C-alpha cells in the first residue's frame, strides 16, 4: 500500500503529473472542481498511472482542498514513486 501527497490543478487541458512541490506531486486534472468531478478524475487518473482498479484508490485527506493525501492499495510505495517520476510532463 502506498500513500502520496498531491497538489491538484483542476480544469487543465489533460490530466498529467506536472512535477513536484515539496513532498507533493503536482497533478493537473481535466475536470472542474464542481460536484466532486475533480476528485473522481484524481482517483481515475492515479489508478490508471498505478495500474490498479479505481476501487483501490481513495482520498484520505483533503477531499475539498487542493492538497490531498491519496492511498493506493496493491502497489508498493517505491514502485509508485518510480512510476510517478517517470510520467512527469512539463
Explain what this protein looks like in three dimensions.
It is a single chain. The protein has helices at residues 37-50, 77-86, and strands spanning 2-9, 16-21, 24-28, 57-61, 67-72. It has 90 residues and is α+β, with helices and mostly antiparallel strands. The chain has one domain (2-86): 2-Layer Sandwich (Conserved Hypothetical Protein Mth637, Chain: A). A five-stranded mixed beta sheet has the order 2-3-1-5-4. The protein is globular, with a radius of gyration of 12 Å.
Keywords:
27% helix, 90 residues, 2 helices, globular, alpha+beta, single chain, Conserved Hypothetical Protein Mth637, Chain: A, 33% strand, 5-stranded mixed sheet, 5 strands
Amino acid at each position: 500500500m502506498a500513500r502520496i501527497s498531491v497538489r491538484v490543478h483542476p480544469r487543465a487541458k489533460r490530466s498529467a503529473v506536472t512535477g513536484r512541490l515539496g513532498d507533493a506531486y503536482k497533478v493537473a486534472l481535466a475536470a472542474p472542481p464542481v460536484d466532486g468531478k475533480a476528485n473522481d478524475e484524481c482517483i481515475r487518473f492515479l489508478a490508471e498511472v498505478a495500474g490498479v482498479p479505481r476501487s483501490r484508490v481513495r482520498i484520505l485527506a483533503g477531499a475539498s482542498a487542493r492538497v490531498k493525501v491519496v492511498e493506493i492499495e496493491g502497489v508498493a510505495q517505491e514502485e509508485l514513486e518510480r512510476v510517478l517520476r517517470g510520467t512527469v510532463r512539463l
